[in-house]
Design a protein that fits this description.
The protein has 215 residues and is of the alpha/beta class. The protein folds into 2 domains: 122 residues, Rossmann fold; 71 residues, Arc Repressor Mutant, subunit A (Orthogonal Bundle). It is built from 10 helices and 5 strands. Strands 2-1-3-4-5 form a 5-stranded parallel sheet, sandwiched between helices. α3 runs parallel beside α4, α4 runs antiparallel to α6 and α8 packs across α9. It is elongated and about 65 Å long. The N and C termini lie far apart (51 Å).
Length: 215
């Protein structure tokens, strides 16, 4: 039986080691490379015949390939025959829905990695998608409506801070330009992120760019 070639991408060496050990328990798969950033991942895909990429959602952002949705979109566009399995700590239904729309074979929550990786590999080896962490509703219209409601709940100050942040200004830049403390700006930015149900700057930028909120 031909083994499926796997590349693992994660910027945490311990995660790379753990995922490799879990994969090597399944004789249907063979790890042919590891990457700690998207640059290394793309280089591996260009040099090797790869059947499956297992990649972290959040990785160092100093790459032209980015991470998160941007990286997944690049992989599906330039390596359409390669299956993509995403590891993440994100539980946002909107982002999970978008990942499935892009055609990933599955999403594994890192907190459930040891319990679910073997189930995921078994499904992938059979040519089936892995359903874990799929949002309850995958309706784009419903997702848009939910996001619109969340976005509408922002205060004028929160809206303006997000607009400036998405335009490329740092919290310190915004504070300085508005003659306010960085702590105040940071607090309002975090409040806005809670309302949008995003957990990191990467998720925030992804939300705004994907939905063209400030364009």
């Amino acid at each position: 039986m031909k083994k499926l070639h796997v590349v693992i991408a994660d910027d945490h060496p311990i995660v790379l080691l753990g995922v490799r050990e879990l994969i090597e328990r399944d004789e249907r798969f063979c790890v042919v490379g590891e990457a700690v950033c998207s640059n290394e991942l793309i280089n591996l895909l260009e040099r090797h015949s790869v059947d499956l990429v297992i990649t972290d959602f959040n990785m160092p952002a100093d790459s032209p390939y980015g991470d998160g949705l941007k990286l997944v979109e690049y992989l599906k566009r330039h390596f359409p025959t390669v299956k993509v399995l995403v590891l993440t700590m994100i539980s946002s239904p909107l982002i999970l829905t978008r990942l499935h729309e892009l055609g990933v074979v599955g999403v594994i929550q890192k907190s459930q990695l040891h319990n679910e990786i073997q189930v995921a590999l078994k499904a992938i080896a059979r040519g089936n998608p892995f359903q874990s962490a799929r949002p309850v509703s995958s309706s784009v219209m419903e997702s848009n409506a939910v996001l619109d409601d969340r976005f509408a709940s922002l205060s004028p100050k929160e809206h303006e801070i997000l607009r400036l942040f998405v335009s490329g200004q740092s919290v310190s830049d915004i504070a300085r330009n508005q003659s306010r403390s960085a702590k105040t700006i940071s607090t309002q930015k975090k409040s806005a992120m809670r309302k949008l149900e995003v957990n990191s700057d990467q998720d925030l930028l992804t939300y705004c760019f994907e939905r063209k909120l400030f364009s």
